[in-house]
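INTERNAL AUDIT FORM
Audit reference: QA-55
Scope: verify that the stored structure record matches its stored sequence.
Auditor: D.O.
Record contents follow.
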Amino acid sequence: MGARVYKGKDPKSFGFKHIKYEKNGFRATVTIDRPAVLNAINLDVLQELNIAIKDTSWDDNLAVIILTGAGERAFCTGADLTEQEQFLKRPGYY
């Protein structure tokens, strides 16, 4: 019985809204696509990154994952503090 090879899914099939996901040869490129907020990571980005990185890790045709950010000002500024604000509010804090 021959070894099973998993080729992963077509990146377009995921319908991501906050990242770009491409496969080319042995390379997968995942781009955080929120340049207006310097690619700050919110929950939607985390969920899409999780799916894309799992797909790349299971795809036997890929050898490299490139993680990058859209725009020219920043790769990623970290957590989206606007979204996190709801979790930071506590009595007496504001």
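Auditor finding: record pair retrieved intact. The mean pLDDT is 90.
Action required: none
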